[in-house]
Design brief:
Order of helices and strands: EHEHEEHHHHHHHH
Structural class: alpha+beta
Bound molecules: glutathione
Helix content: 40-55%
Shape: globular
Oligomer: single chain
Distance between the termini: 42 Å
């Protein structure tokens, strides 16, 4: 299988299936398509044109089959690998996990818009202003807190549904976003956030993102240059 992804520093959607496959031990070949821009003439769009008509990453190619959109890819992988229990085994837990991922997938647009994933950056001062001025972002974070608490209470941890599942792969970029912008997370959720950030697949993604050193101005609403550059 081939997984098409974008720049690791900036690409939370692609991070989900990548982390899922790595952490679950599903072999795949990574194809990184540099996000020079999302314009129709960009080499990003031109490269993807021959892969997926959606023109976005992630896209998973399995033989003749192309699966696009991170949630559909996760479903496909769960289907293809029932032995791995990528969704929780218990039916009710599976329904909760699907609900949580669907909610994340279609919601949290205020947080997503104001605090784009940017692993190389540290933007606590931006986060403080966002936190002060954006009740919609605060509401998104409050909802995350409520959701994570409920799921962890229900499963008993250590991850959202006990063992690693698709839900953890989906929420990993969210945890990293909160860190970049230093958005406040209650103390009781810190150990969970830490566990998610320390999953080997998440660590590998972050390491490779930091090694990219590919500053993309169109993905940078808050910075003119990378960290450490005068
Ligand atoms: N809902 C899609 C979103 C994918 C997405 O927006 N990917 C971004 C990169 S992280 C992209 O390819 N954007 C190109 C564009 O918007 O034209 C998914 O879950 O896969």
């Amino acid at each position: 299988m081939k997984l098409y992804i974008g720049n690791k520093n900036y690409s939370p959607w692609a991070m989900r299936p990548w982390v899922l496959m790595r952490q679950a031990g599903i072999p795949f070949e990574e194809v990184l398509v540099r996000m020079d821009s999302f314009g129709s003439g960009s080499s990003f769009k031109q490269t993807l044109a021959s892969v997926s008509s959606a023109g976005k990453v992630p896209a998973l190619v399995d033989g003749e089959l192309v699966v696009w959109d991170s949630l559909a890819i996760a479903e496909y992988l769960a289907d293809r690998h029932p032995e791995l229990a990528l969704w929780p085994r218990e039916r009710a837990a599976r329904a909760w996990a699907r609900s949580a991922c669907a909610e994340l997938h279609s919601g949290f647009s205020a947080l997503r818009g104001a605090c784009g994933m940017n692993l190389e950056a540290q933007l606590p001062e931006v986060g403080a202003i966002v936190w002060r001025d954006r009740p919609d972002v605060r509401a998104d974070v409050e909802r995350l807190v409520e959701l994570w608490r409920r799921l962890l209470e229900r499963s008993g941890g250590p991850l959202l549904f006990g063992d690693f599942s698709i839900a953890d792969a989906f929420f990993a970029p969210t945890v990293l976003r909160l860190r970049t912008y230093a958005l406040p997370l209650p103390k009781d959720l810190e150990p969970f956030a830490q566990r998610l950030a320390q999953l080997p697949a998440v660590q590998q993604w972050v390491r490779e993102a930091l090694a990219e050193r590919d500053f993309l101005p169109f993905m940078e609403p808050y910075r003119a240059r990378p960290r450490g550059e005068p």
